[in-house]
UDP-glucose 4-epimerase (Parashewanella curva), 339 residues
Amino acid sequence: MAILVTGGAGYIGSHTVLSLLENDYEVVVFDNLSNASETSLKRVEQLTGKSVTFVQGDIRDKAALSQVFEQHDISATIHFAALKAVGESAQIPLAYYDNNVYGTITLLEVMQQHKVYDFIFSSSATVYGEEAIPPYVETMKLGTPSSPYGASKVMVERVMEDFGKSDANFRGVSLRYFNPIGAHESGQIGEDPKGLPNNLLPFVAQVAVGKREKLSVFGDDYPTQDGSCERDYLHVVDLAEGHVAALKWLENNSDFAGTDAFNLGTGSAISVFAIINAFESANDIQIPFEVAPRRAGDLPAFWANADKAAQALNWQAKRSLEDMMKDTWRWQSNNPNGY
Ligand code: NAD
Ligand code: WQD
């Protein structure tokens, strides 16, 4: 039996493939390489000494997906494949809904046709919406995110819920990630954004390596301790291990049917200025920055209540902020131009 990992060549996907292989799972990756390179998987193979089956294809291509289920004995799908740039999603919303929502529906249809029902979905803290008061807890209702990207995650969670009500075989888990950062401690795999990084840590790392002159801190007048936004940053390897924990939870809970959701975060938030300081002191590098206007759509602060994952999945983020900073820098300095 193998685990199908859509989007498995990407940032979180490649780290999860590595964790799956370390836990003796067989893995089939299905990725259209729209935001990734197959090199990530080659490196995962080198790091683990195990092989990965890679199929290049698009989740909206039913025939290509069907072939994967025909040629491999798939027991469960971990579904990372999506477009993920929040700002871009407002420019090209149709592409986001097509890729993220229609793509997921196509995947679920093909899974149902092949009687594969275990499904782990890459959701996001953004599904709690703009009005939710942190810490976010899974008992809160799905909210209204400000971006089409966020809305696509809410829509998929709804699709999963309705699908689960219609087919008692379906077992869907939404993992709601907070802010994954860092890289594998080997420095061999990591986040490789194309063009100008949207997210904080890739930008900081590119300033550190000399590719960008300085960081813009988007706002220092928020109602937070130091005026900059606060987020719940977690190490991507902890996040990857959260997927293995969710898979084992599905395997060990044969009575479970329907859908459930788990927050994957550390349970506490830190500010943009604190990230800059942590990066500087962990790596002994100065990060020049300037304070810039607020970025549209940013919330002042949010973090996870991470109790449910701790209790049910026996999962907790265990790597420190210093680990996250050192591992980010090891990846960026070893690979100044990415893969
Ligand atoms: P990523 O872009 O590195 O990975 C996504 C992968 O999916 C890429 O390899 C891309 O080539 C592939 N892909 C995209 N569209 C595809 C399609 N139609 N068919 C096949 N493959 C396709 O992003 P990531 O940061 O690793 O994110 C993975 C998942 O986690 C995404 O669903 C994202 O929305 C979600 N997520 C990410 C974050 C974050 O901060 N990185 C936070 C919450 C949720
Ligand atoms: C973190 C903080 C910025 C860049 C986004 C999505 C979310 C999830 C993760 C997928 C914010 C500040 C950033 C910069 C800055 N993705 N910042 N200068 O916005 O919390 O979350 O990615 O689901 O859905 O919304 O993460 O890394 O973009 O920003 O000051 O150049 O860093 O304002 O406060 P965010 P981020």
Observations:
- Residues 84, 86, 124, 126, 150, 179, 198-200, 203, 215-218, 229, 231, 272, 295, 298 surround WQD (ligand 2) (CB under 6 Å).
- The domain at 200-232+267-334 is CATH 3.90.25.10 (UDP-galactose 4-epimerase; domain 1).
- The chain is about 40% helix and 20% strand.
